[in-house]
Amino acid sequence: VLDVKLNYFPQWVQHRRHIAGRYHTGLQGMGDLALPHFDGDNYEDSYQNYVIRSSRRNELRAYLTAGGVETLVSWPKPMWRHAKLNLGEWDLPETVKICDEVLSLPMSAETTQEHVDIVVGLTREFFTQ
After folding, report:
1. Roughly what angle, to the nearest 10 degrees, separates helices 57-66 and 113-128?
2. Could you give the 3-state DSSP secondary structure of residue 102?
3. H/E/C letters for each residue in 33-79?
4. Could you tell me the pTM of the whole model?
């Protein structure tokens, strides 16, 4: 199965980059929304995820969910706050802030331009209400 799937990998990565570009263009300048930014000729992202940041992450996520858009919070809390890891308490406010703000938008080989337009439209509605 992997041998067959690997034949499509370059196309899938190119598709993800295209979808990321549409998100980037459509989501510019909305509220406090921070978009992924990777500068430099030596950097090229495959966009496994398209992760945005907002201080209003939870509200935005609820709004997108109500509109039928599934999102993902990959890091809901810092690692040291997982009690079973016994890592103690740390003073890393930027890490805490990141965990409170990051949100992954839909991104897959099956994500269409129409899907992106829906996400962008709902996000724009959210930040203009």
Report:
1. 120
2. strand
3. CECCCCCCCCCCCCCCCEEEECCCHHHHHHHHHHCCCCCECCCCCCH
4. 0.89
**50: burial class by Cβ within 10 Å (0-12, 13-18, 19+)?**
buried
Q: Give the number of other CB atoms < 10 A from CB of residue 86.
A: 7
Give the count of beta carbons closer than 10 Å to the beta carbon of residue 64.
Answer: 21
Higher pLDDT, 75 or 97: 97
User: Measured between alpha carbons, how far apart are the two ends of the chain, in Å?
Assistant: 47
In the structure, how many helices (H) and strands (E) does the chain have? 5, 2
- What are the pLDDT digits (tens) for 90-129? 999 999 999 999 999 999 999 999 999 999 999 999 999 8
